[in-house]
Specification:
Strands 1, 2, 3, 4, 5, 6, 7, 8, 9 and 10 form a 10-stranded mixed sheet that branches. Helix content is about 20%, strand content about 35%. The chain contains 2 helices and 10 strands. It has helices spanning about 100-115, 185-210; strands at about 5, 20-25, 35, 60-65, 75-80, 85-95, 120-125, 135-150, 150-165, 170-180.
């Protein structure tokens, strides 16, 4: 496996995670010494729109399992050094995500939609219940981009498609992208920014699909 040496990145915590990075290709297996990061908000709360949502909704929505390209089908904590080699995708040696980006966003979006109370029910992709609408979300980007040794942004992008469950006719489609600056150039700083980007992304998708209830 080829090892890529890279410049040291400095942040408030001065973590050594960016000292050595591995190219993807079998390096994403979880090991005890890898720090696991999640994008679940520490203090989740009921969405603001739920307070004014109608409680007589009759439509059932099903959230299909979030999909993603093959390069995102991993729990590797991936990033770019845009100021050095923007085409090279790297992953932390000593950090990982607790699940794939699609799995983490699937859980957050399902919870957010269920709490919004805009629907009679919101079913997961594995549910066998009957629904009138199906929401499909395809994730196209989930990466931390370092624009300089001490600066970067967490980026999440994807496309949501709302379908009629009976004939799979497309009702609407919309592309979403959220970017949040890093407060510290470290794995922990990137995870904190990705958590905020995840909240913004999930909130935007939920607000969009809720208008079709």
């Amino acid at each position: 496996m080829r090892v890529v040496r890279m410049p040291r990145l400095w942040g408030a915590a001065r973590l050594g995670f960016l000292g050595t990075a591995f190219l993807l290709g079998g390096c994403a297996t979880a090991t005890p010494w890898q720090t696991p990061y999640n994008i679940t908000a520490l203090h989740s709360s009921v969405p603001v729109e739920a307070k004014n949502a109608p409680h007589t909704a009759q439509v059932v929505l099903q959230l299909a399992s979030v999909s993603a390209p093959s390069w995102l089908d991993t729990n590797a904590y991936q990033y770019h050094l845009l100021y050095q080699n923007p085409q090279m995708l790297l992953s932390y040696r000593d950090a990982r995500w607790v699940g794939t980006p699609a799995e983490m966003l699937d859980m957050r979006l399902l919870q957010h939609l269920q709490q919004s109370q805009h629907w009679k029910a919101v079913l997961s992709g594995q549910s066998s219940g009957a629904a009138q609408y199906v929401l499909r979300l395809h994730l196209s980007n989930f990466v931390v981009n370092f624009t300089a040794p001490r600066a970067g942004q967490a980026l999440i992008a994807g496309t949501a498609t709302l379908l009629n469950d009976r004939n799979y006719q497309v009702i609407a489609q919309h592309a979403f992208q959220e970017s949040v600056p890093l407060k510290t150039a470290s794995a922990a700083g990137g995870a904190a920014a990705m958590t905020r980007a995840g909240s913004d992304f999930v909130g935007a998708v939920s607000a969009w699909v809720n208008q079709y209830q």
